[in-house]
Amino acid sequence: MAEVLVVVETTGAVGAAGGYGVKKVTLEMLTLARELGEPAAVVFGAPGGAQELGAKLGEYGAVKVYAAEGEQITAHLVAPKATVLAELIRRVQPAAVLIGSTQEGKEIAGRVAVKLDNGLLTDVVALAADGTATQVAFAGSTIVKSRVTRGLPLVTVRPNSVTPTPAPAAAPAVEAVAVALGENDTLARVVERVAEQKGTRPELTEANVVVSGGRGVGSADNFKLVEEIADLLGGAVGASRAATDSGFYPHQFQVGQTGKTVSPQLYVALGISGAIQHRAGMQTSKTIVAVNKDPEAPIFELADFGVVGDLFKVVPQAAEEIRKRT
Amino acid sequence: MNIVVLVKQVPDSGAERNLRSDDSTVDRGSASNVINEMDEYAIEEALRIREAHGGEVTVLSMGPAGAAESIRKALSMGPDGAVHVVDDALHGSCAVATSKVLAAALRTLSPDLVLCGAESTDGRVQVVPHMLAERLGVAALTGARKLTVDGGTLTVERQTEEGYEVVTAPAPAVVSVWDTINEPRYPSFKGIMAAKKKPLRTLALADLGIPADEVGLAGATSAVVEHSQRPPRSGGQKITDGGDGGVRLVEFLAAEKFV
What we know:
Chain A folds into 2 domains: 3-186, Rossmann fold (3-Layer(aba) Sandwich); 209-325, Rossmann fold (3-Layer(aba) Sandwich). Chain A is built from 10 helices and 17 strands. Chain A has helices at residues 24-33, 49-59, 71-74, 79-92, 103-116, 223-232, 241-245, 276-279, 299-302, 311-325; strands at residues 3-7, 10-11, 21-22, 38-45, 64-69, 96-100, 121-127, 133-137, 142-148, 154-157, 173-176, 189-195, 209-213, 236-239, 266-270, 287-292, 305-308. Chain B has a single domain (2-214), classed as HUPs (Rossmann fold, 3-Layer(aba) Sandwich), CATH 3.40.50. Chain B is of the alpha/beta class.
């Protein structure tokens, strides 16, 4: 059976071995890959990372782990990974290549597509055994089925698209892959990485529950209320563009057309009117609940359960009730 | 510094958008078309660099004849001139082909810096900056929230999930920007009048030496098999808080097994 290459998305400090974790989207991709062939994981990062992640990848069916590791990979943006991956594809001739639909994942795929003159499909939410991919376009309003018509199926998979299911393989063998770069691959050099307080909340695009606040939250200080509900539900915190532009919450947590696209099991919208800008980033969520003081707010057209009311009364009461029940 | 800003005309993301029923391409005929919002930040950044370091700013756009309207709008913000790649054969081009065409056009302009928005609101694919860099053999610094030009060195600050990183590359390079980088200016009346007289050059595929069958639907590397409207979500229960709204919300969450 032909191999299906899955590019591993990791959590944790890039550039330092230890503390690596596998992102959920990786496990989703391994689950998808099993339908298409024999999953083989590709790990980019610091030396030792592939060894560290091998057991977890094997748990989800990876039969082999390709390790491309070292400073050449971690100290530069995108290009070295694309060069190594394209070379691996030429050598292995996989049935398909799956990459996470993150900014970097898409960028790697883009470069590989040019190198191999191969089609690519991004933001894929389902992948059939024959390579037909399902994508959601235009803010979740259109469903598209597409195929790569030149080359092999090269797809980037959107997080939270499939349920990861374990299928233990024998401990996968780790094979080191040579990192042979061209001079153009090392032009973009990372000179500094600054870690910001991250806390224990799940990553926004991967979270099962997302609790977002909008203009109605009113201030940065009031976002504590949003965070409290998120923590009680084990979720991530998001914000509308109105809230991030007003400085209530940092920009990287923006959900919407110009921010992240999320598709959690539960989306809680607090003080968010539901402008198309915001809906673009969340309307494929499974269950949506909303609290807003304006009964005409468009968010209620999407919400499975909506409360028209003052969020400063409704939300603290909800928090209290959750505490009582858990 | 010679700067080229990539501008794309897209269907307004605030209006209803569709794929065409005949060839599954983006319906640009019935939609109201605008400059891709993120590109306005790229134009603004280019103008600021010109103000600080001198040089020229050229807008480059690939699109149907109607895109000229958005190009004039871009020029009204202050760029010096524009190049419009327009050719019927381009209709339905995939990202791989688009990058081939834009790279060929960029070679004729030999910029020190290519600026663009981090993504377009229609496709949201985010791959073109790196595809261009790959074709041109230069660096791509994507998703910038801050850009510094120091002689021939470009330094970008970009958001990551862990925090942020600082990345540097020699010019020429492709830099894509997020909307966190600046606040785009509004075109002035003078700017709008001036834009009408600025040079807008058109290029066809033949001018770029690209055969028609390598682009458009004919040369696409992927194809839409089918597309359909996602059934609209229907609103569920809506209650008005009568003092127990929080409790009832949690009762709903509990019934759905979230609590």
